[in-house]
Amino acid sequence: xxxxxxxxxxxxxxxxxxxxxxxxxxxxxxxxxxxxxxxxxxxxxxxxxxxxxxxxxxxxxxxxxxxxxxxxxxxxxxxxxxxxxxxxxxxxxxxxxxxxxxxxxxxxxxxxxxxxxxxxxxxxxxxxxxxxxxxxxxxxxxxxxxxxxxxxxxxxxxxxxxxxxxxxxxxxxxxxxxxxxxxxxxx
Length: 187
Ligand SMILES: Cc1cc2nc3c(=O)[nH]c(=O)nc-3n(C[C@H](O)[C@H](O)[C@H](O)COP(=O)(O)O)c2cc1C
Fold this sequence. Notes:
By secondary structure, this protein is α+β, with helices and mostly antiparallel strands. 18% of the residues lie in helices and 37% in strands.
């Protein structure tokens, strides 16, 4: 187990995203939080890319959604990602940080908003998610990112990688004070 600067898992993940590009769902991941009642919650979200330093990655969501309330309470998340073509599973335990509306502009938030299609942007002006159908008010449409648009930055702390090949392979990586350590374990 040697501390390493650039973790092996990250290159594996980047390669998996690339090699599974033919699958429309290669950027869908399961995003698990701890509910306010202490029970697990999981839902699908879209991977929106790595930060420039690649030590974190982004997803976007509505500030009014349950997951945002849950993250205020417990910022620990786990992401599950399966690539069907290469048959690889990544389980990423992450700390998270919310980038929400503020007086200072936020480069990540601004860039991710600009990259959205008009139909994706429109959802952030819909009535509050989770209310009974027909209840709630639509918001006034603006060109700049509305307060409802938040970015969740996820910073992996532990990654459990499983390859479902003829010879299965499993590797667990941990972020320590001196960098990433990687160890092979029985699948
Ligand atoms: C394929 C797919 C992709 C989705 N992508 C996102 C996403 O990127 N961000 C998001 O907030 N919700 C996304 N959703 C909706 C979530 O799964 C979930 O229903 C919604 O965010 C409300 O979750 P919450 O009430 O637990 O916060 C997606 C759903 C599907 C089926």
